[in-house]
Each structure stands twice: as C-alpha cells, then as structure tokens.
Amino acid sequence: MAPSSSSSWLRLRVLVLVACLLPSFIQCKIRIYKFNVMVTNTTRLCSTKPAVTVNGLFPGPTIFANEDDHLLVKVVNQVQYNLTIHWHGIKQLRSGWADGPAFITQCPIQPGQTYVYNFTITDQRGTLWWHAHIGWLRATVHGALVILPKLGVPYPFPHPDSEVVIILAEWWKSDIETLINSAMKEGLPFQVSDAYTINGQSRPISNCSSEGGFSFPVEPGKKYMLRIINAALNEELFFKIAGHSLTVVEVDATYVKPFKTGTIFITPGQTTNAILEADLGTGNYLMAASPFMAEPVPIDYTAATATVHYSGTQSSAATTLTDLPPRNATPLATAFVDSLKSLNSQRYPARVPLTVDHSLLFTMGLGFNPCATCIHGSRIAAYFNNISFIRPEISLLNAHFFNISGVFADDFPGNPPIRYNYTGEQPTNLRTMEGTRLYRLAFNSTVQLVLQDTAMITPENHPIHLHGMNFFVVGRGLGNFDPEKDPSNFNLVDPVERNTVGVPSGGWVAVRFRADNPGVWFMHCHLESHTLVGLEMAFVVDNGQGPNQSVRPPPRDLPSC
Ligand code: C2O
C-alpha cells in the first residue's frame, strides 16, 4: 500500500473511517495520522521565534495505537529543510523503509514533498516516541508514541486511574539549524540550550504570561501513569516530584520489575513509565527536570519545573519544593540504572541470547580532525572504534537492497584498531579515521557488544541507541572491560531490555541482541552534539531463508535523493 497521491490518500481515509464504524466486534487495526511539518511562530521564555513543528505544536501530537496496529503517517514537508521522521524504538520488522534516519534507510523528504510512513507495531507495548532524524530538527519536531496493549490485555501491574505524557526537552531562543551550521563551519563548540522544558514549558516566570509552567491536576487517592520521554538533544536528566515517590513499571516499551524511587534518571532517547500515587490529599508540588553530567562542567543551568496540583487546592497556594540532585550525582544515576530488571514473566519473558556468534568491542570517544574552514584549523570528531561515520549520498538500505556497490563497505572492525589503556593515558594522536563502514550480520545471529568509553579529551557519557532491534543490558562497569573476569558477572536471566543505554563515563556497558530483523540498522549516540560529528555506525542484517525473513520491497512513494 503506497498511498502517494492526494486522491488515493483520501480514498484510504474514507475506507478506514467506514471500516472503523462497523460493529465494535471488528477492532479497527489501522491508525491514520497526518503530519504537516510547518514553520510556526512559537513563544517560549518570553520571546518568539519561527520554529519547525508538526501541525503547529510543540511538543508535537501524540500518536496512540494498540499493539499489532498498522500505522500510516502521511508526512507533508512544508518547510525549507529536508526532513525525515523516525519512530524511535519501533522494531520495524522487515519495514526498514519506514524507520526514518536520513541517508540510512531513506533519502530525505524534500521541501514540498510527502511520504507515508507505513508500518505495523509487532510485539511491543508501552511508551515510545517519534522525532525528526536529520540535522537538529528534532529539537522541536518530536512527540509521544503511546502503544496500548491489545484490547482486553491488562497491564502487568494495577491499572492506573489515568495516564499523562511528560516530554522533557530543550529550547533554544535562536534558530538551531543556523547555530549548528556555523558551529560546524568554524569548528566552535555547540551553543547549549537556553532552557529545559517539561511538556513544552520551562518554568513559571513572573511577568511573562506565556511561561506559566506545565500544571498537572490530580485528585487525591488516584493513581497516575506518567509516560516520561527524554527528548532533549544533549542532556541526561533527573526527574522528580516533591513529596512523592514514583514506581517504575516500564522502560523503552518493555515491562520491568516494579520498583520505587524518589528520582528517575533518563538519557536522551529513553522513555520511562512510572506510577504516581496522589496520596497527599492536598497541595501543590514541584515537578522538576535537571541535568546530569558525570564531570562537573562550569555551566549554569535552571531546572525545568512544573506543578502537580491537587484538586481543591488554591492554585495560588505555595508549592512544596524539593532539593534537586547535584549535577554530578553519579551514585544516584547508578543506583537507578542498577534497579532496572526485566519483568521476565511467563507472558513477557526476557529472551536473552545465551550463546554469542559475534563478540564485539567498540570503543567510543572524541578526537580532532583537520578542517579547512575552522578557526583553529580543526574540529571535534567522535567515533566507534576510531571511525567517524560519514553519511552516504544515497540511503544505505537502498544500496543494500538493490546491491549498489561503492556506497558502503561492510568491513567495520569488530575490535578497536589499536589496543591501549582506554580509560587511562590517552594516545597523543587524536585524529580519527573516516568512513561509511558497516558490520554485517547473518539473519538470526547473536551479538554481544561491549561499548567501551575512552577518556579522550573529557570523560563523556554516551546514550547509545540501536535502531530495528532491542538489546539486553547484561553488564556494566567502570574502567576497562575485562574479558576474563567481567562476563562471569553478566545478568543473563532478567537484564533490562531497551533500545537506548547510557554508557558510563570512563566505563563500559555490555549488551546482547539477536539479529532477527533484516535490513540496515543505525546505531549512534543520542547526544546530537556527538552524533553530528560521527559517533554513528550501522549494522547490515542479511535476509534469512524463511518466508518472512527478508526486507520488503520499498514503497512506491519512497523519496529519492
Ligand atoms: Cu531517536 Cu536514531 O534515533
């Protein structure tokens, strides 16, 4: 189905409308959305700028679906930028053409063009999200993707009375594409954002009626499920609510063993569902999102704040405040991450690969490469295994599917090209290699991937995101990964399953996954400041022999480059 022309799109909409009006025993399995990507004058922090939005909204519209639903999202590009939309965390079984990263699985939707993202949600339920996947447009082009269980299937925890989406993000007062283009050209650091936001608002600012802060009304005694999304470009965040603890029940659309916490830690790309019990009866309570950085950096910040407001309380009544975690509260972040375990129930088992076909070690870090236009003659670069990824001119999935040679090589090294004390003294040569190199996997092969941070320049945290497949986080530690000792401590029983993992500064994380989805799958740091300078690579998963084990042919309206 490739509804490209307006008349066929209209016919399809009518058809689905009629089908969904049929007696309710026929469940409507097709969900249709239209995204008009447009420039909208948007006022935040008391100043107005033209921002790229979906349907005029920041954050963008929430997509609701049930597990097993089929989604058709028609994206109409009415802005001057090339555009793609990514459905972050959706496995896209055999439907990589709908995944979205520019030049990886598709050419961009050019100004004036449209593309229908066409995919089925299989074996996933929970909170995911969507965002632009080109340049830094995702700063304002993002929204929630809520996948409810199949009709009649309950949550594996007491049903909340109500649910709310909480999107954490960052806001720049100036035009962000202009900022990054000049930073790249001159080789200067990227300007940090002007504010963090909670559901589009930074905090109540006096004398600024446009900035009241998000307010969440609750009724005493009720339970609320918060669907929290970190859509920030470059910041790992802490999230907390004064006077209340939260019960975490799901991350990245996989259920976890419920646990209580005062503070949630969430990296860009990740999602967390947590239950808030409105058990205090009355009052206003501060909700806050504040940044985490393992190394203290001398940057002032103001937390984003919102209010949990009990019904019956005067909104003018004082708000109960809370201490914000220190910016470098590593123990708090670590304790949160260590509490995450897969639910691993009979209905939702953790299918951790117990054997490993490919044992990989990728180092990650920052370097410097020559740059002719740069003020100091060089610019920051980032890498996996010392290779800074270069985006191709046509999409990798196209090149793979149609066997077009010369677009990429499949010789990405499974181990670092030079061995050294990764978290100790650094090599003097900070130059990285450049290339469009992929790692090839046979269908259904199993992978153990150790992501090793290096201490180049400054220790950095890296939230690493894999497209197309989830992984299990089987191990984590500080210093260098020890292949002799560390594997004996791996959790192969109930490790958390997710699509984005924070690799600790100066440490490592080990993940395992099964390459059961044919296609080309991007893996990258979800800090835009790192992904922009090359902290990216891709896996190419070959087709299997079975009937449902090959990439489907591309849709007719797939954009060309
Ligand atoms: Cu949420 Cu490749 O990204």
Automatic annotation (TrEMBL):
Q: From which source organism is this entry?
A: Coffea arabica (Arabian coffee)
Q: Does the keyword Oxidoreductase apply?
A: yes
Q: Name one GO biological process term.
A: lignin catabolic process
Q: Where in the cell is it found?
A: Secreted, Extracellular space, Apoplast
Protein name (database record)? Laccase
User: EC no.?
Assistant: 1.10.3.2
Gene Ontology molecular function terms on file? copper ion binding; hydroquinone:oxygen oxidoreductase activity
One GO cellular component from the entry?
A: apoplast
Q: What is the role of the protein in this entry?
A: Lignin degradation and detoxification of lignin-derived products.
Q: Which reaction does it catalyse?
A: 4 hydroquinone + O2 = 4 benzosemiquinone + 2 H2O
| Top-level class of the enzyme under EC nomenclature | oxidoreductase
Q: Secretion signal: which residues?
A: 1-28
One protein family per Pfam: Cu-oxidase
Q: State the organism's lineage.
A: Eukaryota, Viridiplantae, Streptophyta, Embryophyta, Tracheophyta
Gene it is expressed from: LOC113710753
